[in-house]
C-alpha cells in the first residue's frame, strides 16, 4: 500500500492545484416579509447554494446575509437558534429527506417538542392539526414514509417545516420530483399556506413556469450571478436579458397548448472555468464583440428609483451590455 501511496503522490505532484469554485458571486437580493421570491436557473447556476446560505446551512465566504437587519454571522445563542427555526427548508426529494424508520407522528412532532414549541401531551393533537392543514388524513399519523405517495410525502415535508413555526420557507426544487398534476396540487398548497400563515417563500426551481405560478418577483441566475430581477409579470411580459428571453422560449406557449420549444443553444459552461466577460456570451444570440471581454453589471431598467418602504417592489434589473445606458442597480 506504501507503493500505491507513493504512486498517487507522484501523480498529484505534476497536477495544477484545484481552483476554488465560486458558486455564487455579487448577489444582492432583498426579500420582503410575506413575499414570494422565485429563483430560476439551470442546474449548477448557484441557486441551491444561495438557498442554503439563506437557511444558514452554508456561510458565505464574502459578503453578508442580513436577517431583520442583523448580520447572520454575528448571531449566537438564542438569537441564532431563533433564526434557524424561523427559516426552514423543503427539499426536492421528499423520500430521502424523511427518516424511513420514523412514524409521521414523530417526523412532524419531534423537532417542535425538542425546541419547546409544544408540550409532550399536546404533541399528537399538534401533529394532527398540521396534517389536516397540509391535506393529509391524521388517521395516518402512525404510518411510515414508504406507505405514502410522492405527493403525500412532500406534504409531510411541508408539515414538518411548518411545525417549527417559521416565517420564511426555502423551497429547493420542492415540486421537481412530482408528476405534473401533483405539482399543481402542491403548488396550490404553498399558495394557500402562505395566505393562512403569512409565510415568505424563497422558491428555487429550474422551471420558470413553476416559479411564475407562485412568485411575486423572480431572480434569474446564470453561473452564480443574478442576471435579471423583476416582478413576475415583467419577467413574462417584458424580459430584458437574452438569457431570460431564451428561458421563456423553452416554455410551452400559453393558451394554444402548442409548444414553440426552442432550446438554448450550447451547454452551461463549467462553474470551475466560467467564460470571461458576460458569462452568457458563448450562448447568446445577441452577443457583441465587447461581451467576451467586459462583464456587464446589474442595472435598473424600469420601475421607481427607490424600493417602496412597504408594498411590492416593482423595480426591474438586468445585467446586459444592451442596457448599458441604464443606471447601476441600487438594490437597497
Ligand atoms: Fe448577450 Fe452581451 Fe447581453 Fe451577455 S452582455 S447577455 S452576451 S448581449
UniProtKB/TrEMBL annotation:
Keywords: ATP-binding, Cell membrane, Membrane, Nucleotide-binding, Transport
Keyword rRNA-binding: no
Keyword set includes ATP-binding: yes
Pfam families on file: ABC_tran, oligo_HPY
BP terms from Gene Ontology: peptide transport; transmembrane transport
PROSITE patterns assigned to the protein according to its UniProt record, in alphabetical order: ABC_TRANSPORTER_1, ABC_TRANSPORTER_2
All residue ranges annotated as the ABC transporter domain in the record: 6-248
MF annotations from Gene Ontology: ATP binding; ATP hydrolysis activity
SUPFAM superfamilies reported in the protein's UniProt record: P-loop containing nucleoside triphosphate hydrolases
PANTHER family according to UniProt: D,D-DIPEPTIDE TRANSPORT ATP-BINDING PROTEIN DDPF-RELATED (PTHR43776:SF7), TRANSPORT ATP-BINDING PROTEIN (PTHR43776)
Homology family: Belongs to the ABC transporter superfamily.
Protein name, per record: Peptide ABC transporter ATP-binding protein
Amino acid at each position: 500500500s506504501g507503493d500505491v501511496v507513493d504512486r498517487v503522490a507522484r501523480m498529484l505532484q505534476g497536477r495544477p492545484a484545484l481552483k476554488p469554485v465560486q458558486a455564487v458571486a455579487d448577489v444582492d437580493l432583498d426579500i420582503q416579509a410575506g413575499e414570494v421570491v422565485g429563483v430560476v436557473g439551470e442546474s449548477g447556476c448557484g441557486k441551491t447554494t444561495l438557498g442554503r446560505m439563506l437557511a444558514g446551512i452554508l456561510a458565505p465566504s464574502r459578503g453578508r446575509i442580513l436577517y431583520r437587519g442583523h448580520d447572520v454571522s454575528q448571531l449566537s445563542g438564542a438569537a441564532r437558534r431563533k433564526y434557524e427555526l424561523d427559516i426552514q427548508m423543503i427539499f426536492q426529494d421528499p423520500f430521502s429527506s424523511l427518516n424511513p424508520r420514523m412514524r409521521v407522528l414523530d417526523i412532524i412532532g419531534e423537532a417542535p417538542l425538542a425546541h419547546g414549541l409544544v408540550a409532550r401531551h399536546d404533541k399528537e393533537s399538534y401533529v394532527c392539526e398540521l396534517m389536516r392543514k397540509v391535506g393529509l388524513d391524521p388517521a395516518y399519523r402512525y404510518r411510515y414514509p414508504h406507505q405514502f405517495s410522492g405527493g403525500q410525502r412532500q406534504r409531510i415535508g411541508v408539515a414538518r417545516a411548518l411545525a417549527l413555526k417559521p416565517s420564511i420557507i426555502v423551497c429547493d426544487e420542492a415540486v421537481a420530483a412530482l408528476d405534473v398534476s401533483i405539482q399543481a396540487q402542491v403548488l396550490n398548497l404553498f399558495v394557500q399556506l402562505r395566505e393562512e400563515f403569512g409565510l415568505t417563500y424563497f422558491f428555487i426551481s429550474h422551471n420558470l413556469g413553476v416559479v411564475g405560478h407562485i412568485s411575486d418577483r423572480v431572480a434569474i441566475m446564470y453561473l452564480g450571478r443574478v442576471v435579471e430581477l423583476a416582478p413576475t409579470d415583467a419577467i413574462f411580459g417584458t424580459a430584458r436579458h437574452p438569457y431570460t428571453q431564451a428561458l421563456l422560449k423553452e416554455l410551452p406557449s400559453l393558451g394554444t397548448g402548442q409548444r414553440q420549444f426552442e432550446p438554448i443553444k450550447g451547454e452551461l459552461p463549467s462553474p470551475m472555468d466560467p467564460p470571461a466577460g458576460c458569462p452568457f456570451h458563448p450562448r447568446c444570440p445577441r452577443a457583441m464583440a465587447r461581451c467576451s471581454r467586459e462583464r456587464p453589471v446589474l442595472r435598473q431598467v424600469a420601475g421607481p428609483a427607490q424600493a417602496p418602504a412597504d408594498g411590492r417592489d416593482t423595480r426591474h434589473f438586468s445585467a446586459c451590455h444592451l442596457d448599458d445606458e441604464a443606471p447601476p442597480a441600487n438594490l437597497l
